[in-house]
Amino acid sequence: MRVDLFDFDLPSERIALRPAQPRDAARMLVVRGQAMDDRVVRDLPADLRPGDCLVFNDTRVIPAQLEGRRGDARIGATLHKRIDLRRWQAFVRNAKRVRDGDRIDFGAGVTAIAEGRDDDGGMTLFFEGDEPVELLLERAGTMPLPPYIAGKRPADAQDRSDYQTMFAKQDGAVAAPTAALHFTPGLMERLASAGILTETLTLHVGAGTFLPVKADDTGDHRMHAEWGQISPEAAARLNAVKAAGGRIIAVGTTSLRLLESACGEDGIIEPFVDETRIFITPGYRFRAIDGLMTNFHLPRSTLFMLVSALMGLETMQAAYAHAIAEGYRFYSYGDASLLLPEG
């Protein structure tokens, strides 16, 4: 499909620079089939059925944004995928000033050696020393805010908590699974009281999620790889939900992509430990999920293509036009949508 079919105009003032407080006070556009309702996230229990299951991503965002120097050159690095205990793939700013074997000093006693370019357009960095890389990043790194926020303000101490979900346990993401930012302990209690089930999986979100689609046709776009895991126990519980007639509602496109990667043609969700490059565009047949809760996404992005595959391109164009007209807040710190294709 032509990428320009997924374009739309978004006023810059619609981009949220801070999350709603409290988190479940964010607005939520509910799209059932082609019908739309303006709600609030705390209304979610009333919009689901007893026996439905919300699936959360328990990845934890690490402070993966680094600023340093190689000689007199300023070098920026955003880590996006772990290779081993001391090596990470990174997108590097001013990379033309870095050669293989160069040492980059990120301050606070943190240095890394450039070890070559990778297929995703980045560079491999080897972090020197004996301390775990996670400790080095806590000392020298900052939260890797999305470019559309970082371009308007620097990351600060508040982002250390704001850009982390209440489910975050497994270190490794360099972008938050932002749909889950809306959840609070109080909301989780009300969901449980309403008979709504929950499950967790892990997908370490990479910085590649923010890369623009440069191709003119979706068939020419190469999706970034992300590592994920669904335990055998979680897969069994999710299949039991489906067998009992409950709906699987992915909280975030990351959960959705991993569930669909792990699901066979027979609709059975299998245990999964691997990387996925799944790219979902209109025409895709969903096998694992029955709905999606997600934020509002960038024009021409793979994520807007995904929601258009779930709901239909015309429906999502109408939903986004409504959201813009009604003042919904967009992107990572913005408002939510609940997308239910069967109404």
UniProtKB/TrEMBL annotation:
Broad enzyme group: transferase
Catalytic function, reaction form: 7-aminomethyl-7-carbaguanosine(34) in tRNA + S-adenosyl-L-methionine = epoxyqueuosine(34) in tRNA + adenine + L-methionine + 2 H(+)
Superkingdom in the source lineage: Bacteria
Signal peptide, first to last residue: none
Entry's EC annotation: 2.4.99.17
Role: Transfers and isomerizes the ribose moiety from AdoMet to the 7-aminomethyl group of 7-deazaguanine (preQ1-tRNA) to give epoxyqueuosine (oQ-tRNA).
Quaternary structure note: Monomer.
Protein name per the record: S-adenosylmethionine:tRNA ribosyltransferase-isomerase
Organism: Sphingobium subterraneum
